[in-house]
TrEMBL record:
It comes from Verticiella sediminum. It holds the Pfam family FAD_binding_3. Residues 3-341 form the FAD-binding domain. NCBIfam families: pbenz_hydroxyl, PRK08243.1. The lineage of its organism: Bacteria, Pseudomonadati, Pseudomonadota, Betaproteobacteria, Burkholderiales. GO terms for biological process: benzoate catabolic process. The gene is pobA. Keywords: FAD, Flavoprotein, Monooxygenase, Oxidoreductase. It is an enzyme of class 1 (oxidoreductase). GO terms for molecular function: 4-hydroxybenzoate 3-monooxygenase activity; FAD binding. It comes from the Bacteria. This is 4-hydroxybenzoate 3-monooxygenase.
Length: 390
């Protein structure tokens, strides 16, 4: 098979890129190691920046998102038992959209199938070759048969554990990493959200987050020890712990019910530089990871894809500038989101080694944040998504 772009990975980054390239008349195949059902079964992000919403619209797949997604004008921060609202719309004139990564992925998969665009699921032993030449190749096995794809470029959209970044010679790559000393235990339940907006909680028992997927489906998280196990957490124990971390009104209003998903995610900050190696270009989690606090992971993947799609479109029109600057344009935005996610994580979690001094500093910062318009504006403009610098 020969295509212009071989995309590795059918997560949000790969699927969105595929759709945008199709719109630009550029041929692509997506090669994914898992099944479609497996990809859709992963419960992950839920908050879309306006730029991500825009990109879904440009890709022609925004219809259901606008019908079913919930527009949020602000969020709440809860500390010392009281909630304080940050009004994004008033402060920076922008909003965010509540729409699950699962739904976004499903919309992209459906559109791809309806257009008859090629996607290979359950591809085994995917390998990328010759990306330091003008003729890169991808090989994989499917149903026991060996396949080869010849292409102009390989888009590495295969997530943090993917094969693309791992195929780059280690001396060509500089990585930056911070691993946090706790995890997030999350549950999904078909219960009405405790509040219209998200609540980020700093509590002496640890961080908590009240999020949602719709008016009837809630997503809640509590900070937990890194070595904790899902089996240690009955639904009842989870709800009791969450209730302890909420303000009194929210605790009383919380509607509980059986969980439909429960998992523990580790928290990590990670950036690989650069994101381009000859004709291999990394996008999304393949190149960087943020801790989930602040909901930047999926949005950063979408912003890399925006730069990559534009760079490839320019390339085929004869202009190489955007491709030459792909890595630095992405990284400028990535590092700002890394900073914001690290800062939100530092502000809201209990760190085992920070002690009373650390807790007092957090409280002082939170007080400053909710009472200073300058500080609230800074949070708001980062949360809704920084500009793309085009
Ligand atoms: P992915 O979604 O990881 O997609 C990569 C795809 O590549 C996968 O489908 C994978 O199967 C495939 N792949 C991997 N290796 C290969 C290979 N060798 N060959 C072929 N295909 C391959 N963000 C938030 O904002 N909020 C959250 O609450 C949140 N929770 C998260 C929970 C977890 C457990 C994880 C891992 C991430 C979470 N994130 C969250 C981050 C967010 O989901 C990611 O940033 C987002 O999925 C990135 O999209 P992506 O397409 O770059 O990567
Ligand atoms: C969600 C996750 C986040 O990390 C966040 O900051 C907001 C919402 C969520 O999964 O809904």
């Amino acid at each position: 098979m020969r295509v212009q772009i071989a995309i590795i990975g059918a997560g949000p980054a790969g699927l969105l890129l595929g759709q945008l390239l199709h719109g630009a008349g550029i041929s692509a195949v997506i090669i994914e190691q898992r099944s479609q059902e497996y990809v859709l079964g992963r419960i992950r992000a839920g908050v879309l920046e306006q730029g991500t919403v825009e990109l879904m619209d440009i890709a022609g797949v925004g219809g259901r998102m606008h019908r079913e997604g919930l527009v949020h004008d602000g969020t709440e921060l809860c500390f010392k038992g009281e909630r304080h609202r940050i009004d994004f719309h008033k402060l920076v004139g922008k909003t965010v959209m509540i729409y699950g990564q699962t739904e976004l992925t499903r919309d992209l998969m459906d559109a791809r199938r309806a257009l008859g665009l090629p996607t290979v699921y359950e591809a085994a032993n995917v390998a990328v070759h010759d990306f330091d030449t003008a003729h890169p190749r991808v090989t994989y096995e499917k149903d026991g048969l060996a396949h080869e794809v010849q292409c102009d470029f390989i888009a590495g959209c295969d997530g943090f554990h993917g094969v693309c970044r791992a195929s780059v010679p280690t001396d060509a790559l500089h990585t930056y990493e911070r691993v946090y000393p706790f995890g997030w235990l999350g549950i999904l339940s078909d219960t009405p959200p405790v509040s219209d907006e998200l609540i980020y909680v700093n509590h002496e028992r640890g961080f908590a987050l009240c999020s949602q997927r719709s008016t009837t489906r809630s997503r809640y998280y509590v900070q937990c020890p890194l070595d904790d196990k899902v089996e240690n957490w009955s639904d009842e124990r989870f709800w009791d712990e969450l209730r302890l971390r909420l303000d009194r009104e929210a605790a009383e209003r919380l509607v509980t019910g059986p969980s439909i998903e429960k998992s523990i995610a580790p928290l990590r900050s990670f950036v690989a530089e650069p994101l381009r190696f000859g004709r291999l270009l990394l996008a999304g989690d393949a190149g960087h990871i943020v801790p989930p606090t602040g909901a930047k992971g999926l949005n950063l993947a979408a912003s890399d894809v925006r730069f990559l799609w534009q760079a490839l479109e320019d390339h085929y029109r004869g202009n190489q500038t955007a491709l030459e600057h792909y890595s630095e344009r992405c990284l400028a935005r990535i590092w700002k989101a890394e900073r914001f996610s690290w800062w939100m994580t530092s502000l809201l979690h209990r760190f085992p080694d920070n002690g009373d001094f650390g807790r007092k500093i957090q409280e002082a910062e939170l007080e400053y944040l909710v009472h200073s318009e300058a500080a609230s504006t800074s949070l708001a403009e980062n949360y809704v998504g920084l500009p793309f610098g085009e």
